[in-house]
Design a protein that fits this description.
Strand content: under 5%
Number of domains: 1
Radius of gyration: 14 Å
Structural class: mainly alpha
Helix content: 55-70%
Oligomer: single chain
CATH topology: 434 Repressor (Amino-terminal Domain)
Shape: globular
Length: about 90
């Protein structure tokens, strides 16, 4: 399975699915399928999406689930992670 943060980045940028779809030249339904994990993007589309958000492909897509944002944003958790603990 391929995990992604498309919805998170899209909402942070204030983009609709239609607007993002136009930016990367796909159908708006494709964005919905991607966000739900029902569709795996081509390498070209993954690169276009990452470029649209100004992030690396690895920031947008992963083979393992992303940690919860609350966990990442908590300074205590960040300190534990930097010490090699979880």
């Amino acid at each position: 399975m391929l995990f992604n943060r498309i919805n998170l980045f899209r909402q942070e940028k204030g983009l609709s699915r239609k607007e993002l779809a136009e930016m990367v030249s796909v159908n708006p339904q494709t964005i919905g399928y991607l966000e739900r994990g029902d569709y795996r993007p081509t390498v070209e589309l993954a690169l276009k999406l990452a470029a649209a958000f100004g992030v690396s492909v690895e920031t947008l897509f992963a083979l393992t689930p992303f940690p919860p944002l609350a966990h990442q944003l908590d300074p205590k958790n960040n300190l534990e992670m930097s010490n090699g603990q979880e």
